Amino acid sequence: MTTGRSRCLLAAALAAVTAFQLAGCDRSSSSRAAVNSTPAIARLVRQDGSAVLELGPGGLPGMTVVGVRKVAISGILETTGRVTFDEQRVASIVSRVAGRIEQTRAVQWDSVRRGEPIVKLYSPDFMTAEAEYLQAQETRRVSAAPAVAGGQQIAAAMVEAARRKLELLGMEPADVAALRAPSPTVWMRAPISGTVLKNQARVGMAVNPGDVLYQLGTLGDVWIVADIYEVDLARVHLGQTMEAVTTAFPGEVFRGVISRISPDIDPNTHTLEIRCTIRNPGLKLKPQMLATVRIVTSPSYALVVPQEALVFDTDGYYAYVKTSRGFERRRVTVEAWHERGASRVLSGLNAGEQVVAAESLQVNSLWHRMAGGNW
User: Cβ–Cβ contacts within 10 Å for residue 265, how many?
Assistant: First the structure.
């Protein structure tokens, strides 16, 4: 009996082991089948220097593909700009001698008139040049006598050279004409009428040739510098009329024209600058003010895709474009669009092309895993 019972227990144990081994084999086979089936579902194919992601007939679960839409846009090109001084209406008072400042008559933000005395400089260079000029005048007077043949022309040339030297030192022609005796001090006058933008002059301060003492500017006409996208370049041209509105004066429209278009395009944003010359009645527009710029242009169109079709990866946005071979990864340049959940495409896509929308992040992850050699 005992022997029969032992045989039964041994048979049961062998049956259990056999069943466990069979189950293990089934699990291993299923796991290997799952791994081996992955390349059949998706693979990265490299051809002619490009790569295409091939997916199975069903793609990824939940993945959708949408078309790149071509949307008409209005004839008003709107952008943001900033007010700056017209560089042609900015001037500086620069010391052309070594000396010191004796007196000043203007401070920052003062309004000055052209020719108004601004800063008084002391320098022995003035006295020396003035003495040379007065001596040349005296020589010309003496040379005017009939007994001195040909001396008048030489004396006149000496006077002109001495006068030119005084002007190069910063003296105004009217001050040179009024000169009667040498003096080491000279008033430097405002070269234009405008506002004192910068004041570097202090009484008693030593100066050297080339030192900027004052900077003056006028706000009668100002510039507004604005950015436009590369795709809108064909819509603007020199002399085109434009309007500007500021938050400081929301009910007032400032009008002007496009006076310059930058020859350079920013490679990072694909934008370029335009410069608009604006009339500034009442001097309301101030430098560094922000303004909304509206330019009347011919109607155009924009390419629009859902935001979910865009994947930000490392250094920019990418989209997965459906082709006859599979899905091609392209870098795209985009900007904001007024439609909720959509973006405007500036470069990288064409109208009518189809891109992955839903599950674009999963497609991007799959691309990186396969490109990295993990699959």
Answer: 14
How many angstroms separate the Cα of 311 from the Cα of each of 49, 315, 351, 363, 370? 22, 11, 19, 10, 17
CA distance 36 to 30: 10
Q: In the predicted model, what is the mean pLDDT of residues 131-154?
A: 77
CA distance 288 to 255: 18
Closest to 163 (Cα-Cα) out of 145, 177, 150: 177
pLDDT exceeds cutoff 70 at 23? no
Confidence at 35, pLDDT banded by 50, 70, 90? very low
What is the model's pLDDT at position 38?
42
Phi, psi of 10 (to 5 degrees): -65, -40
Q: How much of the chain, in percent, has pLDDT values that exceed 70?
A: 86
Which CATH fold topology does 91-121+188-216 show?
OB fold (Dihydrolipoamide Acetyltransferase, E2P) (2.40.50)
Contact yes or no for 51/371 (Cβ under 8 A): yes
Mean of the pLDDT values across residues 152-162?
87
What is the sign, positive or negative, of the torsion defined by CA atoms of 277, 283, 288, 293?
Answer: negative
Pick the most confident of 42-51, 152-161, 275-284.
275-284
- Greatest mean pLDDT among 53-57, 202-206, 248-252: 202-206
The Cα 138–Cα 14 span in angstroms is 137
Give the span between the Cα atoms of 121 and 104, in whole angstroms: 9
CA pair distance 102, 201, nearest whole angstrom? 10
Query: What is the rounded distance in angstroms from the CA atom of residue 371 to the CA atom of residue 320?
Result: 15
Q: Span 76-86+219-298: which CATH code?
A: 2.40.30.170
pTM for the whole structure: 0.56
